[in-house]
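job 3f2a | input accepted
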Amino acid sequence: MTDWHRVSLEKISKEVNTPEGYIRISAPLEHDNIVNGDGLRAVLWTQGCPNHCPGCQNPETWDYEAGMLIEIDIIKKELAKFKGQTGLTFCGGEPFVQPKACKEIADYVRKELGWNVWSFSGFTYETIVEHGGAALELLKSLDALIDGPFILSQRDLSLRFRGSKNQRLLHLEYGTGKILAIE
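job 3f2a | predicted structure (183 res):
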């Protein structure tokens, strides 16, 4: 196991501490977003990230105690008000350090609103799968994952939905998390 992989597994284990039924977010919900996934999307910006990538576009989301603690039921009610959306994207921060809350929201928008679900993560697919637990269950509820840390030296603004060349857009099989295609 490489040092990077070992450290990554340690980082994903450090979940944001929130009460049951709550999520910590860094900004109000967005709607009509076209840059964080295919189609017209709602975006939920999670708070808390252990990766601290140099050049990160959202360093204000790193602090696990910052942002807003909000009831998941309020998030669901707000999302239900958004008309014309085709999906939800979890951005961050790092969604996989709040996997239970994100999964509950993902399951809601899929079942009740008929949306697809994407997520960004500074962790690789392989790290999430190896870690297992709630993070793996969140992965299984996704249609797509943009994985890997942002690496400033590999920054490439021409990439679709990614910031650096190491990151992958993984199309996933809902329910299993198996990779169907890689961009």
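job 3f2a | The chain has one domain: 3-182.
job 3f2a | closed
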